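Run log, item B.
One chain of 330 residues. Sequence copied directly from the ordering sheet:
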Amino acid sequence: MEENNNTTTKKSSRSMMLTVLVVLIAMASVTIWICYQVTQAGAHARYMGIKNLSSEKVSKIIRGAEMNAVNIFDEVNSHLDSPDEVISALKSKATLNLDVRGYFAAFEPDYFPEKGTWFEPYVYQPDYGGFDYRQVGSARHNYTKSPWYVRAKSSGTSFWSEPYYYYDGTSMSGHYSTFVKPIYNTKGELACVCGADMKFEWLAKELKWVDENSRSNKLLNKYLVMSDLSFYTIILDSDGTCLAHPEEKEMAINDKNVLKDLQHRKSGVADLDIHGESCTVFYGPVEYIDWAVAVIVPKKDILKPMVPIAGVLLSMVIIGMFIVWFICKR
């Protein structure tokens, strides 16, 4: 009889321990799932905020470059009677916006007969600082056949050119986009096409500044757990081409859904493989121009806060089972 009671007690203890184990595992799983959702929501809010901040920063730079360029172009417009005064007009306000690498005025062929067929004065920032001037128009560089010149002449409106790569073996080499505006004389005839060259490497430095400030912001990072904030920000063209990026972080986005959003100027979030690493990409359009800003965040960094949570819950399950075992044994 006593042996039967002991057997029954052991079976009851095992059933109780199994029940408690199932309950503890279920509670731990639900808790981990909730923490995962909260972590994802926190990351979404954080990095969408950084994306919006970067987008606003780029918009301000673009808008500032446009406004300053228009002022210079208007100065050129008021001095169309002298090539020397045109050069002086380009130099007059060039220092107001150092985000622009150079300004030019590409005149219609033989507009100033004394300057020859191709007259294109260019005021730019050299390596040694300040602004310098050179004449870049020539038979070899027939700017009248360039896409930006043809488009400006046919449309009669200002615009940002398609991104392009310029190379001359100096620090001027790099990826650019140019703000272009046609200028007309008092007779309503096209006199020249003016442009302001912006180098993407400068935009990359501005984005880096936003990233570093976001990492060092104590209020923004007050409740972070274990994350090393290894995110970075890039600028994308509507076709997924990376226009500005940190060093050694050049890439191209090929995901069809992301490209569709970029073309329709929509914001979104996507899990992509970037340089062999699983990442979450937070992206959205830039105002005033057909570009987008994207914040690249390694998924392992987003999930790092789950490590201590999972460790605590696992410890609680083990301790709980030990307590139940101890009670059943007694």
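Observations after the first pass:
- The chain has seven helices and twelve strands.
- The chain has a mean pLDDT of 84.
Flagged for discussion on Thursday.
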